[in-house]
């Protein structure tokens, strides 16, 4: 079972740091760069992992975890970093990054994007493992559903024993909404992000969520895994956990804001190896 009170309180502080620059304790700052299919996020923590500042921007420079607009990705990361440095009054020189499982071939490109903004990459993780830095799950499966992919990490005794990833994510929900409502993709994306309309759109996108759950069920069973822990922007959709639980037969949990879990977890791992 997730320590939901602890996680919700911590992620609320990360969210607060988007608009309020918090005073760090003395020492090095830790930076996490999350290059996502739908958003690029930079999270800054202090040496004690307390949130300091966060900047994010909607972007379409990646597809299924792969950079498809290198120049655009570099520009956005550089601009976000400059905004953070202006807020903090100090340079950000190092960062950690994370990759969707199975996209190791894109590691060099992700690294080059970070370096183009003047940051040295000191650690590389897979996204579900980064999220588990926040969750602290010993046994179960952490499922990170971003814009392009559904990734999972199976944990036994606190160690990752299996990592999988397949291309189905929030972008697919948006495409289904656009087709169903006969509206532009940008408008469908706005509807998806509007929590007041989640109940309305849920029946429309349910089949895609079931496909995401089927990806997890393909790799784990209720006999082998005691719980599923969701994170990633797509998991902000109200009711998604109930579909996973029904399709897999495994108890499924998520925090109030699953979007910022992975970026914050990446930042926690900004430690030189």
From TrEMBL:
| Gene3D superfamilies in the record | 3.30.420.40
| SUPFAM superfamilies the record matches | Actin-like ATPase domain
Transmembrane feature ranges = none
Note the superkingdom of the native organism.
Bacteria
Matching entries from InterPro entries are given as: ATPase_NBD, EutJ, FtsA/MreB, PilM
CDD domains in UniProt: ASKHA_NBD_EutJ
One short Pfam family name for this protein?
PilM_2
* Listed NCBIfam families: EutJ, PRK15080.1
Put simply, this protein is called Ethanolamine utilization protein EutJ
Please give the organism. Answer: Faecalispora sporosphaeroides
